[in-house]
């Protein structure tokens, strides 16, 4: 392939992920997303004049017109660079990578800023007020975080009850979910201890809010402690607060450019973007959507599942990873080896690119060749991207 039309992941970084109403709760979503973009432009000044800024944000209510445009301006991107805000729920950050890669393959541009972020702590409440309230009494408001981020609009139900039913249909039991959740915290704690995340996380400090590591990792988590938690969504259910991803504030951002652009800059990219896939249906469940997207993306790359050295599958719920790994028959030592969203957190639009960044860095550490990042999204959709290490 012509190096001018071959997309690569040049670099990436993210904020620490803060717990809901935690250390980053006072920070607007745009400031969270602007922080890693600002740092990337400092490292690579040419991207101040990128060909586009493509950023995911799920909780957009009250955030102003086209949040990606505002984030780009706040980060110092030239005002002549167009920006686009993506929102296919949790898929948005990973979809931004595919969108940039597609544009490069079509010859539309050479340099793109990608990623996404959300502040779940600062999502507002809303109500239609333009029509005068004629009756006395209390007013009901809609929680934007729940309605736009955690609620399936197709069947008008929360992602938790929906996933609880899928667990029953797929025969996924409580002990295996607790085991995966405990492993997520254990692996994430080990990654912190080893310094793995040091090159991935940009400490955040705006003078009032400070955080230098992911806030949700519990070093003392265990299957025994998780077994003591009550079911969250059904009296006889199997999902608990411990086996679901944490509500989180954070952002991740990266640079996608042509291989020729990277070579001209004398930079070895994190990897070549080989293929991607987006899937939906046949229902609105989450569990098997990463598996379906992975199968399609790997096939489009001309590879077999056995060729993949590293998998990142978002831990929206422990059961999603369990179901997808079962379906694909994946070995545990290749999947989420540095922990996942149960421990690190899941800031909706900020997760997709985080998965790819973590996968790329683990691939380089292992000196493997191929990695896949994947996740499910509200409404019963899935996304996956295949990355090839170049050095």
Automatic annotation (TrEMBL):
Residues 9-258 form the Thiolase N-terminal domain. Keywords: Acyltransferase, Transferase. Pfam families: Thiolase_C, Thiolase_N. It comes from the Bacteria. CDD domains: thiolase (cd00751). It is an enzyme of class 2 (transferase). Its EC number is 2.3.1.16. Residues 268-389 form the Thiolase C-terminal domain. GO terms for molecular function: acetyl-CoA C-acyltransferase activity. The active site is at 90 (acyl-thioester intermediate), 346 (proton acceptor), 376 (proton acceptor). The keyword Acyltransferase applies. SUPFAM superfamilies: Thiolase-like. The keyword Transferase applies. Belongs to the thiolase-like superfamily. Thiolase family. PANTHER family: ACETYL-COA ACETYLTRANSFERASE, CYTOSOLIC, ACETYL-COA C-ACYLTRANSFERASE. This is Acetyl-CoA C-acyltransferase. It comes from Alloalcanivorax marinus. The lineage of its organism: Bacteria, Pseudomonadati, Pseudomonadota, Gammaproteobacteria, Oceanospirillales.
């Amino acid at each position: 392939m012509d190096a001018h039309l071959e997309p690569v992941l040049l670099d990436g970084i993210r904020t620490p992920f803060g717990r809901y109403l935690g250390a980053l709760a006072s920070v607007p979503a745009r400031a969270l997303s602007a922080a890693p973009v600002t740092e990337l432009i400092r490292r690579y000044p040419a991207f101040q004049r990128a060909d586009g800024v493509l950023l995911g944000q799920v909780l957009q209510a009250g955030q102003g017109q086209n949040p990606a445009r505002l984030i780009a301006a706040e980060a110092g991107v030239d005002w002549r660079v167009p920006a686009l805000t993506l929102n296919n729920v949790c898929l948005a950050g990973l979809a931004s990578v595919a969108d940039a890669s597609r544009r490069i393959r079509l010859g539309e541009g050479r340099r793109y800023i990608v990623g996404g972020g959300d502040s779940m702590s600062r999502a507002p409440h809303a109500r239609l007020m333009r029509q005068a309230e004629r009756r006395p009494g209390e007013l009901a408001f809609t929680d934007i975080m729940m309605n736009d981020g955690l609620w399936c609009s197709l069947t008008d139900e929360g992602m938790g009850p929906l996933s609880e039913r899928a667990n029953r249909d797929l025969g996924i039991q409580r002990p295996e979910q607790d085991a995966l959740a405990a492993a997520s915290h254990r692996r994430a704690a080990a990654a912190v201890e080893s310094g793995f995340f040091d090159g991935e996380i940009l400490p955040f400090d705006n003078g009032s809010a400070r955080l230098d590591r992911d806030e949700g990792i519990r070093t003392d988590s265990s299957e025994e402690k998780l077994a003591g938690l009550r079911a969250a969504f059904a009296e006889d259910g199997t999902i608990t607060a411990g086996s679901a991803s944490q509500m989180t504030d954070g952002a991740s951002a990266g640079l996608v450019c042509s291989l020729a652009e990277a070579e001209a800059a004398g930079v070895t990219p994190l990897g070549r973007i080989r293929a991607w896939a987006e899937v939906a249906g046949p229902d609105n469940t989450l569990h098997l959507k990463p598996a379906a997207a992975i199968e399609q993306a790997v096939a489009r790359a001309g590879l077999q599942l056995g060729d993949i050295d590293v998998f990142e599958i978002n831990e929206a719920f422990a059961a999603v990873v369990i179901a997808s790994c079962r379906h694909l028959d994946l070995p545990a030592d290749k999947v989420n080896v540095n922990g996942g969203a149960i421990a690190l957190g899941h800031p909706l639009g900020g997760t997709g690119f985080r998965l790819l960044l973590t996968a790329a860095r683990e691939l380089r550490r292992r000196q493997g060749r191929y990695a896949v990042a994947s996740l499910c999204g509200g409404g019963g959709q899935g996304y996956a991207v295949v990355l090839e290490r170049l050095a």
